[in-house]
Structures are given as structure tokens and as C-alpha cells.
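Pipeline run #58 for the internal structure catalog. This entry was flagged by the ingest filter as a single-chain record with no existing model, so it goes straight to prediction. Upstream metadata was stripped on purpose; only the residue string is passed forward. Reviewer on rotation: M.T. Logging verbosity set to normal.
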Amino acid sequence: MRIKILTPWSLPQFNGRFFPSPMEWDGAEFVCDPDCREYDWLVVYDEVPRSKRVEELACPASHTILVTQEPDSIKIYPPCYTRQFNYVITTHDPQVLRHPGYRRGAGAIVWLNGRSPLENRACRDYPKSKTLSCIFSTKRMTHTLHSKRMDFIEYIEAHEPSLERFGRGIREIRNKYDALDAYRYHIAIENQCRPYHWTEKLPDSILSLCLTFYAGDPKIGCVLPPESFIPVPIDDPPAALAIIQEAIADNAYEKRLPAIREARRLLCERYNLWNQILDVVAEHENKQLPETSGRTRIYDRHYLRRNPVHLISEGLELARVRWLMGR
């Protein structure tokens, strides 16, 4: 079985590293070649490439999946876009993203630690010679928790001498794993603290076997072992500092290493983009439904806006979602 993935990125070096093509994963072949015309399923990761605009389907319309990337507090995917797909893997609330093929995603994201998915899945050990790291740039944004994250990190940095900070404008690194592999502990703060939504920040840390001080998805303990990370309050830096220092003094890393290993196993075998896609494919095939022709094209979201009806519909959908989230 061949599964084609379209991504919004046009950089070959990005897709080549994080979406190696072709790649064998649990009996399926994943390809990330926009020009591929022989495939059994089509997956669009967030957006159809704007350079492509339209994908002429080479598979049944029922074999199409959209995987959303952003939380519902940042980005809304209008019905004119989502209804092109038979399934949607998302962390959006089902009241926000209404779709008959809705599937709650868990870890259906791209790992950005600098290793390919197969390299990460090898589950190597990493000698730990350093204590604590974080990766933050000097940039501040006000529409997310970015500014709070900066205040938080600056406070911890001022009071915990073992913290080594990496990021653009501070201490730049070529690969994210350079700031993870050698460290027992890592601080990961999400831009958005939304239930069921987590980005690569936590998996990237766990893949390097770090014990992560984490602020983000309040439901993450329902997916990964609670002992594999330590929650910290982003709104209370002094309390977070006390948690961090107590954990380091108590050698929490060594005590929690089995849980961290189990979390990494779960990420590599279940809570990743590839297995989340394969779960939907297996579910569909088990239904043994007759395949119908249906749609023959998948359009880029921006291309759809050329139609005034779609543009107005997207505006109404945005107003509806804002009302839902604000009530």
C-alpha cells in the first residue's frame, strides 16, 4: 500500500529530512513527492502546497485524509476545505471542526529534532553528561503564550545556573537534538495550552530521553505515562523553579527513566503521524465499504477562496467558532 503525503512546505531539504520519501513504516510505503501519480491513499498535512493548488486524485475520494496542524485557537479550517476529505485527523474540538469523518488526533505531528522518523524509531540511548536545557528564541509575540514563555524562561535562567539556553539570537544550533541528547532535563513550553493539542516540543524531548518540565496540553497524562514528564505552571515562575530544583536535587531523571522509555516507545509505535494515519486506513478497510468515485480533485484552501460563496462561508464559520470559544 502506498500513501502519498502533501505538505505545505516546498523546501526539498525540509521534506527530505522530516518526510523521507519513500519510507516504509509498518508495512506501508509513504511518499512525499507532489508529482507521484500512483498511490492508494492521499494525506494532506495541513495544506495543499500553494505552488500546486490542485491535486488530481489518483485514488478513490474515500481514501483521503486531512491532518490539521494548528490548534483551533490559532487556525480554523473552513467546511469548504475539510469536506473535500473523507477523514480528518485533528486536535480541534468536534464542535469546532464538524466532520463526519472526525478522528481525534494524538501525536499526529512532525517531529523536528533533526532526525528522520526511522532514526528516531531506532530508540538509541544517549549518554547524559549535562543537566538542563531549553530552546527559545529572543522573539516575542503577543497573540500566543510566547511572551509568557519568555518571561518564564528568563526567570528560570536567572535563578537556576544549570540551565543552558539555545535558540535563534542566543545560542544557535544546527539540529535540535544537539540541545537535547546530552541533557537529563529539558524545559518545553507550548505556545497554546489546549486540551489534546501538543506540538513537537514534548516528543522531541522524550525522543532524546529527557525528563521534560512541561507546560501545555492539560490532558497529556491521558496519553503518555504521567511519570514521563513533570508539569510546571507557566503563570507562576517561582513555583515552577521550586519544582525544577527539587526534581534535579532528588535525581528524578534516574527514577523516572523507565517511564520516559515507555513514553518514547508509545510515541514511536502509536502516537505519531504515520501510525495515526495507518489507524484510519485500517479502520476504513475493516468496514469493507464499496468505493465510489466521488470527487476527483482536492483544492488548496486559498484557491477555494476565489469563490465568493466559499469566502463568505469561511467568514461565517470563523464567527461561529469565535462565538463558541468565547461563550
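catalog note: The chain has two domains: 2-109+272-326, 117-269.
catalog note: The domain at 117-269 is CATH 3.40.50.11660 (Rossmann fold).
status: ready for reviewer M.T.
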